[in-house]
Design a protein that fits this description.
single chain; 524 residues; mainly beta; 36 strands; 33% strand; disordered C terminus
Length: 524
């Protein structure tokens, strides 16, 4: 099963990368081979930590892909020497990791014209929005496509051969009785216990009637297991969207998600699972939850919980969202309503939406106005804001001793983890959505622009940077303009020691989480 394979893979990674540390493996390792990035933010726990990298060379592109047939909303993936990306035109691409050339493409269906939907901000069509996931053991990539079927919207899970693009499986995943046009599949996909797990929510604007869902569909096809938010009579909303992040899977195979605002606006009414952190079993049964005491007024003001839950190595959990309040929780006992251990108010000036990066007890959170660094302590339980980045950014990842984030200004930023200062900056071109996020694997940093992928050299630790790929593909006219000047630094690359240190912290930190867990057994 996925969780057993992950535990074995991490054990090997700990011994190889940092030596025996007096414990077992962490759950947050890369689930695939060393050169792979097969799930949103790199591993089931969504920690956003790359394998050790010598440096990222943003001074020159390694390559730029051809212009693809639609907008890119998901994170690029890398597996077996190919980069995988999906578009809002319902097309999946496999690109050569060496050159960016198209190895194969598979157009699955006609996407849904945006005018067919009751609201939303994806245009001109809605197709594949969530980041795909790859199962290396099956050599298969999974996507959820919004398809136009007999004039109506239908959400279909498809499994394709990663080698050829051949469709291996399709399965409708619309919940019975749902208004399919009101649903948006926005989260990344992940794997758990032989199932593809993902969230469903509404289109931007929260129009029409929908209910948030967590779906777990068999990889071989078949009826999905479903957990529904706002499931009571007359209830609606409670989107599972998380700024595009995938559901988080811990070492026990439990699924953690954040839920958005629901339709219940009075605390005198029965709680509806909205505005929450939910821990679910692989069978999609609720094990425990947390919601702030302000959940009802938060619902009325559209103040979603909207980041990937941060599973800290000591068993604590960090949660945040549109309220801009950061919550510290006891992962072993979420406690229900109003049982947070500590809070950090007004942590940033914009919404906090999307995937995270975490190293030890420090979490890097995706505030739209600039990534923030928050450190947690256990005794006493507390949160401290370390810094706020000076530039706007999307969901961050950690590689080569820097935090990498993509801004709405079309720039890729490398930030110093101790201060948030800009150390590297490269122009990649306009982005398609509010939550673009890079991936780092196979000697490359991959940054999604609106309709193409830009690659920069990021050789593995111990590889001389001069040996990294350096011959860029022909740059499209849309990228011909000179990049903006570097800000806050001169583009200094981080050394391999820093990269190894960051990866080591994440691995050793995840160790505590695994041991602790074993002791216990719409929006755009």
């Amino acid at each position: 099963m996925v969780r057993k394979a992950a535990s074995l893979a991490v054990a090997a990674a700990v011994l190889a990368a940092v030596g025996w540390a007096g414990g077992a493996a962490a759950a947050a390792s890369n689930p695939g081979a060393a050169g792979s990035w097969v799930v949103y933010h790199g591993n089931p726990a969504g920690t956003g930590v790359a394998a050790p990298v010598s440096a990222v060379n943003t001074g020159r592109r390694a390559w730029t892909s051809p212009t693809l047939d639609g907008q890119i909303y998901g994170e690029p993936l890398l597996f077996a020497g190919r980069v995988y990306v999906a578009t809002e035109n319902d097309t999946v691409y496999a690109l050569s990791a060496a050159t960016g050339a198209v190895a194969w493409s598979a157009h699955l269906a006609s996407p849904v014209p945006s005018g067919n939907l009751p609201c939303g901000n994806i245009s001109p069509t809605v197709g594949i929005t969530g980041t795909p996931v790859i199962d290396p053991s099956r050599d298969e990539i999974f996507v959820v496509a919004d398809e136009l079927v007999r004039g109506a919207s239908a959400h279909v899970l498809a499994g394709l051969s990663a080698a050829t693009g051949k469709t291996e499986m399709t399965q409708g995943v619309d919940p019975p009785g749902a208004d399919t046009a009101a649903l948006l599949q926005r989260t990344g996909l992940t794997l758990d216990d032989g199932r593809v797990v993902f969230g469903m929510g509404g289109n931007f604007g929260d129009c029409a009637s929908y209910r948030g869902r967590v779906m777990a569909a068999p990889e071989t096809g078949g009826r999905p297991l479903v957990f529904t938010v706002d499931a009571g009579p007359g209830q609606s909303q409670g989107a599972i969207w998380m700024g595009g992040a995938a559901p988080v899977v811990d070492a026990a195979g439990h699924v953690w998600v954040a839920a958005g605002n629901g339709s219940v606006h009075s605390s005198s009414e029965r709680y509806d699972n909205s505005d929450s952190l939910l821990e679910l079993s692989p069978a999609m049964r609720r094990l425990q939850y947390f919601a702030p005491s302000t959940w009802a007024t938060d619902d009325a003001q559209d103040l979603d919980m909207s980041i990937a839950p941060v599973l800290l190595p000591d068993g604590q959990v960090i949660l945040a969202g549109k309220s801009r309040i950061v919550y510290l929780l006891n992962g072993a006992h979420l406690g229900g309503i109003g049982k947070e251990q500590a809070t950090l108010g007004s942590a940033c000036g914009e919404d906090i939406d999307g995937g995270i990066a975490v190293s030890g007890m420090t979490a890097y959170l995706p505030c739209a106005s600039g990534v923030i660094a928050v450190r947690a302590t256990r005794s006493p339980p507390a949160l401290r804001l370390l810094w706020t980045a000076p530039r706007q950014g999307g969901p961050p990842v950690l590689a080569a001793g820097l935090i990498w984030t993509i801004g709405q200004d079309g720039s890729l930023y490398g930030l110093a983890p101790g201060s948030g200062a800009v150390r590297q900056r490269a122009f990649i071109g306009a982005v398609a959505n509010h939550f673009p996020t890079p991936a780092v694997a196979g000697g490359l940093l991959l940054a999604p622009a609106a309709r193409d992928v830009v690659a920069f050299s990021a050789p593995a630790a111990g590889t001389p940077t001069s040996a990294a790929p350096s011959a860029p593909a022909a740059t499209p006219a849309s990228h011909a303009a000179s990049p903006p000047p570097a800000a806050g630094g001169s583009g200094l690359p981080a050394g391999g020691i820093a990269g190894i240190t960051v990866a080591g912290l994440a691995i050793v930190g995840g160790l505590g989480w695994l041991l602790w867990r074993r002791r216990r057994i719409g929006h755009n």
